[in-house]
Specification:
Blueprint: H1 8-19, H2 21-47, H3 55-58, E1 60-62, E2 66-68, E3 71-73, E4 76-78, H4 88-93, H5 106-128
Antiparallel strand pairs: 1-4, 2-3
Length: about 130
């Protein structure tokens, strides 16, 4: 999901000159984590409707911010003892035998419904400076 704002480069330069490069990186990282936590909560609440053992819900994790192709990024992934990362895509997209599982589209719904809250969390953190 990419958003193009007019004047974004100028705003970015202004913020970097005001705060400095290191502080801007820290602020952006904190904003990404805050926004990521919002999405993780939405995913967990969506997984509530079809949980069996609760392993898929329990293993949702948020990575530390990192740079990917020059852009600070954060990743939501599944990591834990039950290795749910291997089957999350089956719940999300279905299979040949079960094309419409109960959890179909749960991650996508969480991303869509949490999008506004995610941007609000990022905006609040950036305003605090």
């Amino acid at each position: 999901m990419a958003i193009k704002l007019k004047g974004m480069k100028e705003s970015e330069r202004e913020l970097k000159s005001r705060y400095g490069k290191a502080k801007m990186k820290r602020i952006v990282d904190e904003a990404l984590v805050a926004g990521g936590l919002v999405i993780v909560q939405k995913i967990k609440s969506n997984f509530e409707s079809f949980k069996d053992t609760g392993a898929s819900k329990a293993e949702v994790k948020l990575s530390k911010p990192f740079t990917l192709n020059g852009v600070r990024t954060i990743k939501i992934h599944w990591k834990g003892p039950k290795e749910r990362y291997k089957i999350i895509h089956l719940n999300e997209f279905g299979t040949i035998k079960n094309p419409n599982p109960r959890g179909k589209g749960a991650v996508e719904r969480a991303l869509r419904s949490g999008q506004e809250a995610y941007f609000q969390a990022i905006k609040q953190r950036l305003k605090r400076g």
